[in-house]
C-alpha cells in the first residue's frame, strides 16, 4: 500500500481538491486497495469542516464526489504516509517546522512538468475561476506524480 497525504493551509480548498482528483485516478487506474490518499491543513481553522463549496463544485463539474472532514497536519502523519505533498512553499515550511526535513516531503508541483516547482495558488479569497485554475494544475501535477512514483504498484 502506498499512502499519499496532500497538505495545504486550511484543508478546505486545495488539498481536498487534490485528494478528490487522486481518489478518482486511483479508481480509474484500478489501484483501489493499493494506493490510498488523504489530506490535511497546517492550520486548525477548519478542523471537522466539509471542503469549501467551490472545491466541491469544481470536483463535481469533473464527475468527482468527495467526502472529507478537515484535519490538521500532525507529526504522526510522517510515519503513516509515504509521500507528503505540500501545495505551496509556506505549507512546505510549516510541515518542516513540525517534522523536520524528510525525504517523504515534496512540493506538489515538483512533479508538474509544465511549471515545475511553482506554488499551487491559494484560491480562498478569489473567485470561482481560481478553483477551475487549480483543478487544471492539480489534475496535471497528480497525473505526472503518478507516472513518476506509482508506476509498477500493480505488482506489489
Ligand atoms: P486552502 O485555502 O489552504 O487551500 O484550504 C484556505 C482556506 C482557508 C483559509 C486560507 C486558505 N483561511 O484563512 O481560513
Say which molecules are bound, naming each kind only once: 4-nitrophenyl phosphate
What's the end-to-end separation, in Å?
8 Å
Mean pLDDT: 96
| Tally of alpha and pi helices | 5
Strand order of the largest sheet: 2-1-3-4
The biggest beta sheet, please? 4 strands, parallel
H/E series: EHEHHEHEH
- Runs in which pLDDT lies below 50 for 5 or more consecutive residues are none
* Cα shape: globular
Class by helix and strand content? alpha/beta
As a percent range, the share of helical residues equals: 25-40%
Q: How many runs of DSSP E, i.e. beta strands? A: 4
Rg (CA only): 14 Å
* Proportion of strand residues: 5-15%
Structure commentary:
- By secondary structure, this protein is of the alpha/beta class.
- Helix content is about 40%, strand content about 15%.
- It is built from five helices and four strands; from the N terminus they run βαβααβαβα.
- It has helices spanning about 15-30, 55-60, 75-80, 90-100, 130-150, and strands at about 1-10, 35-40, 85, 105.
- Strands 2-1-3-4 form a four-stranded parallel beta sheet, with helices on both faces.
- α4 links the parallel β3 and β4.
- The chain is globular, with a radius of gyration of 14 Å.
- It starts with a strand and ends in a 7-residue tail after the last helix.
- The model has no long low-confidence stretch (mean pLDDT about 95).
- The structure holds 4-nitrophenyl phosphate.
- 4-nitrophenyl phosphate (4NP) binds next to loops.
Amino acid at each position: 500500500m502506498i499512502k499519499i497525504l496532500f497538505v495545504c493551509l486550511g484543508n478546505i480548498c486545495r488539498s481536498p481538491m487534490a485528494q478528490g482528483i487522486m481518489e478518482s485516478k486511483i479508481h480509474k487506474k484500478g489501484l483501489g486497495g493499493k494506493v490510498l490518499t488523504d489530506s490535511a491543513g497546517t492550520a486548525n481553522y477548519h478542523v471537522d469542516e466539509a471542503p469549501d463549496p467551490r472545491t466541491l463544485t469544481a470536483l463535481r463539474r469533473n464527475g468527482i464526489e468527495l467526502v472529507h472532514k478537515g484535519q490538521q497536519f500532525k507529526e504522526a502523519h510522517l510515519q503513516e504516509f509515504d509521500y507528503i505533498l505540500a501545495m505551496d512553499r509556506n505549507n512546505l515550511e510549516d510541515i518542516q517546522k513540525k517534522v523536520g526535513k524528510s525525504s517523504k516531503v515534496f512540493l506538489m508541483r515538483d512533479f508538474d512538468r509544465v511549471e515545475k516547482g511553482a506554488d499551487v495558488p491559494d484560491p480562498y479569497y478569489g473567485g470561482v475561476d481560481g478553483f477551475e485554475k487549480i483543478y487544471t494544475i492539480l489534475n496535471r501535477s497528480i497525473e505526472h506524480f503518478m507516472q513518476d512514483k506509482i508506476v509498477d504498484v500493480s505488482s506489489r
